[in-house]
Design goal:
alpha/beta, Rossmann fold, 6 helices, 6-stranded parallel sheet
Length: about 180
């Protein structure tokens, strides 16, 4: 069985910012996220990350800076005993019309191709309605972790989506219910 879980980055693994995460110094890990990813790794899950990064197109940071941020994330996860198997990111502006920027499903479909799986019942854990929309468009199972960026009013339109207060709480639930 190909056990896969997909994660958003900002607001799930690390603190998000209205001013973007522009450097490794601004990349601050959320409490419990590294341990949660390590638990998933030990349970046999492959983990993919799908993240909108329009700060590249806006000129706030370069691809090299984004790669340095991702390297810091990967190293932190590995130091905690976990593994991120794949990262997909969209560097485009929201109005670019690309197929990869969430709520479009492109990044999730690319991860499915990399993992050689379909996304039926594969959780995609995010903190924004665009994450729910991307999951549904890709055929994945949307799950929400509340963050300061979560639009709680719009979330009311999705009463069937499980909501958690942290990645750790979400992973506890997933592992307890043996979901995939």
């Amino acid at each position: 069985m190909n056990k896969v879980i997909l994660l958003d980055r900002d607001g799930i693994i690390n603190q998000d910012s209205l001013h973007y995460i522009k450097s490794v110094d601004e990349f601050i890990i959320l409490p419990g996220s590294l341990e949660s990813i390590a638990r998933l790794t030990r349970a046999g899950y492959r983990i993919g990350v799908a993240t909108n990064q329009s700060g590249v197109a806006r000129g706030f940071y370069t691809f090299d800076e984004l790669n340095a941020i991702h390297n810091k994330m990967i190293q932190a996860v590995e130091a905690a005993g976990g593994k991120i198997d794949a990262i997909e990111y969209c560097p485009h502006m929201p109005d670019s019309g690309c197929g990869c920027r969430k709520p479009a499903p492109g990044m999730l479909l690319a991860l499915a191709k990399r993992f050689e799986c379909n996304l039926d019942n594969v959780p995609f854990i995010g903190d924004r309605v665009s994450d729910i929309e991307a999951a549904e468009a890709a055929g994945a199972k949307p799950m929400m972790v509340l963050s300061p960026m979560t639009d709680r009013v719009s979330l009311l339109d999705y009463p069937y989506v499980p909501i958690f207060h942290s990645l750790a709480e979400c992973i506890d639930w997933l592992l307890k219910n043996n979901d995939r």
